[in-house]
Amino acid sequence: MTAPAMGGRGRVTSAWRKRLEILFFVTPALALFGLFVVWPIITAVQLSVYRWKGFGPLVDFVGLRNYVTVLADDVFVNSIVHNLIIVGGSIAIQLPLGLAIALLLNRKMWGQGLLRTIIFVPYVLAEVIAGVVWFQLLQPEYGVIDGLLGAVGLRAPEQGWLGDPDLALWTVLVVLTWKYLGLAVILFLAGLQGVPDELYEAAQLDGASWWQVQRKITVPLLGPTMRTWAFLSMIGALQLFDMVWILTGGGPANSTTTMATYLINQGTRSQNFGIAGAASVILFVIALIMAVLYQQLILSRDTRSDVVTARRKKTKKVIR
């Protein structure tokens, strides 16, 4: 009778030891997550229902009035449109361009490693450095871009690429494409390594053209990688701040204002921390909704396919 009891105690002790080990390793990560993610969100929600200039206690409670003010502000509404334009433009430009470059660099060629490094370098540059460099390049009259255009007989915009309200946002989009295209290329190259060579060989034996091989084999198998990259690109574009802040500061005439630059302007320059808090909560909600919808409508197909594959493998093992 004693042996089973001792065995039961041993199992209980082992279970508690595993729980304590998990708690030991997870607690630091949860603490950092709570400190740098959960607490700022709670603070932003708290500030959003007060009128507060940054000094003194929170006493002027205004409820949802700050949210009404933000949503009624044409500058903020336009900033949402600007973010959505950047989301759509980034995916529409970087996806085909990144895929084409990845397919090119996936072939054995001279200087392959050097070309990969050159394309990836802009991504690893700090946004501040990249922004300052492009700000100098795009300066009217003495900027390198205007100088090159003048050398070939072309005329640059009189107000400059970043000073013309009709061109500023698209100029920022070009700079963002240069900055983040390397991430798409590297991810696509990594995905291409997972495509079996046997499929290409079978397609060649069947007489498939290069275009048919890419359309029927490469792109479908690269789908999960492309969808993951598009998700990262979408979230990054919704939170875009530093590059716009350095290049234009949201101008000219608020033509490049994003949700992030709007709330920073309201908080640091206008001292309207309640308005800034409301704008940050709205930004969080918009990003959360788009992330959940993307997960449910697009990324879920990859999850379902993985589950189906795992079930098929398990069934085969059982049959064997």
Biggest sheet overview: none
CA-CA gap between termini? 41 Å
CATH class descriptor of the largest domain: Mainly Alpha
Shape: flat
Written account of the structure:
With about 325 residues, the chain is mainly α. It folds into two domains: about 1-45; about 75-320, MetI-like (MetI-like fold, Orthogonal Bundle). It has 13 helices and no strands. It has helices at about 1-45, 65-70, 75-105, 110-125, 125-135, 145-150, 170-190, 195-205, 210-220, 225-240, 240-245, 260-270, 275-320. The radius of gyration is 26 Å and the shape is flat. Mean pLDDT is about 85; it is low at about 315-320.
What secondary-structure arrangement, pairings included, does this model have?
Elements: H1 2-47, H2 65-71, H3 74-105, H4 112-124, H5 127-137, H6 144-151, H7 168-192, H8 197-205, H9 210-221, H10 223-238, H11 242-247, H12 259-269, H13 273-319
Quick take:
With 320 residues, this protein is mostly helical.
Key features of this structure:
320 residues, mainly alpha, MetI-like fold, 2 domains, 76% helix, disordered C terminus
